[in-house]
Amino acid sequence: MPRDSKESKKGPAPGSPPEQRTAPPVDEENLIRRLKQGQQWSCNVLVDLYQERLLKLARGITLDNEESREIVQDVFFTAIKKIDTFRGESGLWAWLRKMTVNACLNWKHKWKRRFRWHHIPIETQTIIPAQRSETQKDTPETLLQKKQE
């Protein structure tokens, strides 16, 4: 028996690169129709087709891997939930890209508001001297005496 046929039955040799799975081309109109029908298969295909590109897009805007994953997950959830509102004037990729960019920008605005709320600019802070005299009023001993009085 030739050696090649034995190896083909066993699979790839250890250390060799795994075979890449290539999905057959998907007709976008068919995918949208199946999504509107609520078929689970079509949701999986949608994620497989666009997840990596949307993650790269989100990471470029947020600069945060975890937030990007959450944003893209939310985008897929929203897209599947609102697929009936998809008019088809542009492609599915353009629709998902727009939703991702908007979600990332909303996240950035929310982050900036949160940061501004807790942030005190240096200009408004009082400068604390490097060395304090023990005779100043706010030493721990004087504060304790004031409390006791």
Written overview of the protein:
With 149 residues, the chain is mostly helical. 63% of the residues lie in helices and 0% in strands. The radius of gyration is 29 Å and the shape is rod-shaped.
Short description:
The chain is mainly alpha-helical. It is built from 6 helices and no strands. It is 63% helix and 0% strand.
Order of helices and strands: HHHHHH
The largest sheet, given as strand count, sense and whether it forms a barrel, is:
none
What value does the average pLDDT take?
76
- What is the number of strand segments? 0
The N- and C-terminal alpha carbons lie at a distance of 102 Å
Radius of gyration: 29 Å
Query: What fraction strand?
Result: under 5%
* Broad structural category: mainly alpha
Helix content: 55-70%
pLDDT below 50 for ≥5 consecutive residues: which ranges?
A: 1-12, 16-22
Please count the helical segments: 6
Shape: rod-shaped
